[in-house]
Amino acid sequence: MKLVGISGAIIGNKTAMVVQKVLEEVKKLDPEIETELLDMKEYDVQFCDGRDPSAYTGDTKKVIDSVVSSDFCLIGTPIYQASMSGVLKNLFDLIPPSALQQKVIGFVATGGTYQHYLVIENQLKPIAGFFRSYVAPGYVYVHDDHFNEFKEINDLDVLDRIQRLASELVFMQKRLKSVE
């Protein structure tokens, strides 16, 4: 089983850090699960222009192929202006609708206000519905205050929610695979 963790940010490293932390917790639960961090700032991805996803080349093709080949996904985004990042929205536009169909997905987000956690409920979960994904019931929102001066997560409640999200992803994926 392959879990792809997507960091939908091209600036900073907080979102990638949270995604990576969940991936690490997944590996602790089941070392046999292959994990991959797809950090969007490491790729030169084209803007979606409506062509068939298979027609893209270079980094854009690599990113699309990585999402398509995953068994389940963890999706992370910084919250800007009460919305997901444009980078993540572009990725959703690039991948074929079948890329996340009947796959377990989980969400993490980072932001500067305590109300921005609602982006997960009001924007990301409906997108998951469009893709016909199975969404982990928990998610993790990490506020700027949850990081210490070394940019490490230091809030025990957040660390507990990260561990619970990892558990939910593994549990749901294993149950789904056992039914298939």
From TrEMBL:
UniProt xrefs under Pfam families: FMN_red
Leading EC class: oxidoreductase
Segments forming domain NADPH-dependent FMN reductase-like: 1-145
Keywords: Flavoprotein, FMN, Oxidoreductase
Entries under InterPro entries matching the protein: Flavoprotein-like_sf, FMN_Rdtase-like_dom, NAD(P)H-dep_FMN_reductase
GO MF annotations, alphabetized: oxidoreductase activity
PANTHER family named among the record's database cross-references: FMN REDUCTASE (NADPH)
Protein name in the entry: NAD(P)H-dependent oxidoreductase
Lineage: Bacteria, Bacillati, Bacillota, Bacilli, Bacillales
